[in-house]
Specification:
Length: 101
């Protein structure tokens, strides 16, 4: 096993953040206690694959969560978690480390 360098650490952090953002998009904002009842209602519990699209709930009182098909390509959508990180990276490349708001 080779030693971990700074590049590997940043690469791993970026991969973790983007994968978590994509996989969690369909249930973003949902409280963990609501996840099992919601997916059970949709016939998706126990979860065996990531949630690409969550069909509308049959319960009109239940909030409809973000779904990939509403926001863009399957599995992705407007991702503010990584969007601002990429924007800051572009700013760093263009303006250097002394950027400000």
């Amino acid at each position: 096993m080779r030693p971990t360098n700074t590049y590997d650490k940043f690469h791993g952090a970026w991969l973790g953040a983007t994968v978590a953002g994509a996989l969690g998009m369909s249930v973003q904002g949902m409280h963990k206690d609501d996840l099992k009842p919601y997916l059970t209602d949709l016939g998706r519990w126990p979860l065996t694959d990531y949630i690409k699209t969550v069909p509308p709930s049959r319960d009109p009182q239940r909030k409809q969560w973000f779904t990939a098909d509403i926001w863009g390509p399957t599995g992705f959508g407007p991702d503010d978690d990584t969007l601002f990180q990429v924007a800051n990276l572009l700013l760093l490349e263009e303006k250097g480390p002394e950027i400000t708001s």
